[in-house]
Write a structure and sequence with these properties.
Elements lengths: L1 H5 L7 E8 L5 H14 L4 E8 L7 H10 L17
Parallel strand pairs: 1-2
Length: about 90
């Protein structure tokens, strides 16, 4: 039921992250790892739930990559987050 609501196929692999989008949470590494996963498993989806934090911002290029490749939303402003798949 939840997969359907998010637009995900029943058998589609999903990598999820819940937390603050900050440097110390490894967002740059996550985005790089997901790119590698997509090379091997093109149907994989990345679901991010969280928000940016001014106190420990990700690098501008990481933020751009996040915003270009998937939909992200803050926990209070979004009841569901729809992953963007390749």
């Amino acid at each position: 039921m939840h997969r359907e609501r998010l637009g995900l196929k029943e058998t589609q692999p999903v990598i999820g992250f819940v937390g603050r989008f900050t440097r110390d949470k490894g967002m740059a590494e996550l985005m790089g790892a997901f790119r590698q996963v997509q090379q091997q498993v093109p149907e994989a989806a990345l679901l991010l739930i969280g928000d940016y934090e001014a106190g420990d911002p990700v690098a501008a290029e990481v933020r751009d990559l996040i915003e270009q490749t998937l939909e992200s939303c803050g926990p209070a402003s979004c009841p569901t987050c729809t992953p963007i798949t390749p």
